[in-house]
Design goal:
This protein has 135 residues and is of the alpha/beta class. The protein has one domain. The chain contains five helices and seven strands, in the order βααββββαββαα. It has a five-stranded mixed beta sheet with strand order 2-3-4-5-6, with helices on both faces. A hairpin with a 2-residue loop joins strand 3 and strand 4. Helix 1 packs parallel to helix 4. The longest helix has 14 residues.
Amino acid sequence: MTSDITNQLADASRLRAAWSPDEARSLATLLARTIPDAWMDWDEESGEEWARVLVDQFVVALVRAKIPLVIVVRGELSLVRQIEHAAVMIVVDDMDSPSLSATSKSIGHAFQEREVSPTLDPSAFSAMDLWFATT
């Protein structure tokens, strides 16, 4: 069973004008400081549109630069909820399981800066699939 994130993507898209890469950087930095042993990986200068927050080699959160969207693993949720932020949050059990779904239209609208990879199956994808398809 997948979790339909169509509404979250639509909400994040509606809030696009009030969001900036600076806010994304601030949120990702704060997540990295709040989650024990975490660090942020984001090459903003090369045009990357996602900041990744990692613990060891595992991605525990993704923050989108162009829309207020954060994807976080459930194990870090209690810490993330302590942070005040304007981003729409999507919670996943892990970043690699194909537990998400959304309409193609909502995906295209949310990630309009780039052509979404046609390999993304809107009926079942993981957070990392979404990251890969929109980078």
